[in-house]
Amino acid sequence: MKNFSSFKRLSSYIKPYRLSFFLVLFFTVLTVIFSGALPYVAGLPTTEITKNVLAGESLNFGYIKQTLLWIFLVGLGYGIAQLLAGVLITNVVQSMMQDLRRDLEQKINRLPVSYFDRNKQGNIFSRVTNDVDAVSGALQQALIGIINALLSIAIALGMMFYIHKVMALVALIMIPASFFISKMIVTKSQTYFNNMQNALGEMNGYVQENMTGFGILKAYGREKQALEGFKEANHKLQYYGFRAAFISGLMMPLVQLTAYLTYIVIAVLGSYYVIAGALVVGQLQAFIQYIWQISQPMGNITQLSGVLQSAAASAKRIFEILDEEEEAVSEAYLSLPEEVKGEVRFENVGFSYSPDKPLIENLNFTVKAGQTVAIVGPTGAGKTTIINLLMRFYEVNDGAIKIDGIDTKKLKRSDVRSLFGMVLQDAWLYEGTIAENIRFGKLTATEYEVVDAAKTANVDHFIRTMPEGYAMMINSEGDNISLGQKQLLTIARAVISNPKILILDEATSSVDTRLEALIQKAMTKVMQGRTSFVIAHRLSTIREADLILVMNQGSIIEQGTHQSLLEKDGFYAKLYNSQFAEEEMSE
């Protein structure tokens, strides 16, 4: 079916484990053979007892004991084969899911930053966790279950034709009837299962977003609005979930109804053949059991239908990530020179986040090695976009960005990014010790290098005042230290990476004046001898910059030193004087 096409792609993950999978099939076939033989063997003592009673003979206990032994051996073989098949399929499925998660992780690392700008983090998390778990659970339950069911139906049908062809043809009617019912219901319910998984991803995204900003929600008294938003997302999930479960739930009773009708017809027809002498009682007993051996697997398939439909929707969402367009890879790369000086040149650069809204057009400027360039301008002017282009988080639409005369498009992204150290406005730390967070900039750094970087960033004293010093654990939210302290740690992280080019993106915008001075002092140390790009709203922090680029609406409208721009009495001067006036008023 079209809706289950994602399962075809999942089959490629079985290939590395095909030997184990073939063993699963072997033991499943054995399970079905033993299961198919059991009703026939179980009917033998019944037939013998009936024959002895009707003939007025004593019971043939020797034959009955022999058939009972056969029943025990067949049942034992059934149990062992079923156990081995279950163990092997568990190993195969979990190994497949391990490979799928690995591919997802590798894919995510190859996706462009723009993908994460377009999609909520919670929705991506849902695909990597909930959707993979849904597929894993479905394969665990359904893979062996469906194979078992289909083989069981085939063997049961074969035994029914062996016992009595006419009765088998009558019983055969229930299979196409059940298939037609199943197909009709699956077609109707699959849309709801797709919508249900999408709604689950949206709800996870909403929860993740609100949990991240929980303190802000509390501060502004937005709990009620957040709850209403959650109710809306939850109601949407409940709406699709109920309809998906209800419609798929109709399958089991409708399929069972066809089985009961078949049972009634066969019971009447079989009794007639027994009376007519064309069938013995034991064969009728076995035939009726075979009807249940067909209806029960079909019932199992219908029960698994909901799980399979949910898994199909989840697999579709997983493969949507795996099919996303990756960052373009060049076939031929240039190598970085042995000594990178750090000269940066923008040549006729054009860029837009969307084709219909151009942001940067024909941008040109040169930053000499070791210079500090400050980029200022109103919100939305394109300041952070410059950094995104420098780091190749986004590719330029026109023109070229060159480092030491080499077009960055001709270099590996990893090589380009290895040249940069970044300190952003939103200081990001992960759960781990202070030393581990600093060492993130250079994983091979020694303890001496970690401490030296902390001293350069003016954060060593703060660290030593903590109870556990460099071994202090930063929690998962990173909120057990202040914003200023976090920012100093990110500067230490940049220092330890020893970058050729440093990017400071509004690194002091969220701290007080005292900490700003401390951070500014640390940044001045770090910038010495390095090409540095500084984005700052507080213009007082960039007076010493070698070059100031004033941007507005994606273009450089003024450039020069702090003093020369003030003398021009243009856009920069007005911006600076307005800030200076605001600072005086605040004092």
Automatic annotation (TrEMBL):
The chain crosses the membrane at residues 21-42, 68-93, 142-163, 169-186. The keyword Glycoprotein does not apply. Residues 344-578 form the ABC transporter domain. It is found in: Cell membrane. It is a multi-pass membrane protein. The keyword Nucleotide-binding applies. Keywords: ATP-binding, Membrane, Nucleotide-binding, Transmembrane, Transmembrane helix. GO terms for molecular function: ATP binding. SMART domains: AAA. Pfam families: ABC_membrane (PF00664), ABC_tran (PF00005). Residues 22-310 form the ABC transmembrane type-1 domain. PANTHER family: ATP-BINDING CASSETTE SUB-FAMILY B MEMBER 10, MITOCHONDRIAL (PTHR43394:SF1), ATP-DEPENDENT PERMEASE MDL1, MITOCHONDRIAL (PTHR43394). This is ABC transporter ATP-binding protein. It comes from Enterococcus lemanii.
